[in-house]
Specification:
This protein is of the alpha+beta class. The protein has helices at 2-44, 144-159, and strands spanning 51-55, 58-63, 68-74, 79-85, 89-102, 105-120, 128-134.
């Protein structure tokens, strides 16, 4: 009787814990893949990542010695990467795009997109937008806004 109860309890415990263990393993694997992509991008510019953040489907890092920002985003069907020399940039800001949450209440808005936008010193260069959140790709926003604001402040300090 006790062995049967123990076996059933152990089976239930495993059945409940297994999904969480598998989700954690998938998250760690994705973070390693993003970190590897970011480091390869930096190595191509003879740089080493000194500061980085890996979150969701993107990684952003900086080599403070060479004053470069590296961005790597892994989507299902494409990879987006940027290597940005901060000496060519004028400023950086967080750009948030909103849409009405409910058409009946236009004052209630939700974030559609969240980008870290870098503006170049030269008019011949294009503005660079690094995507941190897109409602079409991710269901719910979490810490992306805080990470974007942190990096905007960090990059502006490096530029000035």
């Amino acid at each position: 009787m006790d062995i049967g109860t123990t076996a059933i309890s152990a089976s239930i415990l495993v059945a409940c814990a297994l999904p969480f263990a598998l989700m954690y393993k998938k998250k760690v694997r994705r973070q390693h893949r993003l970190t590897d992509g970011l480091q390869k991008l930096a190595a191509a510019k003879n740089s080493k990542i000194s500061t980085k953040d890996v979150y969701g489907d993107f990684a952003i890092g900086m080599d403070e010695k060479t004053n470069h920002i590296f961005y790597f985003k892994q989507k299902i069907d494409e990879v987006i990467s940027h290597s940005i020399d901060l000496s060519t940039m004028n400023r950086c800001e967080v750009k948030t795009t909103y849409s009405p949450f409910d058409p009946k209440h236009p004052q209630d808005q939700e974030i559609d997109r969240l980008d870290l936008v870098l503006y170049p010193k030269s008019k011949q260069m294009e503005t660079i937008a690094l995507g941190f959140y897109d409602v079409d790709e991710t269901f719910q926003i979490a810490n992306e806004l805080a990470i974007a604001e942190k990096w905007a402040e960090f990059i502006n300090k490096q530029i000035n």
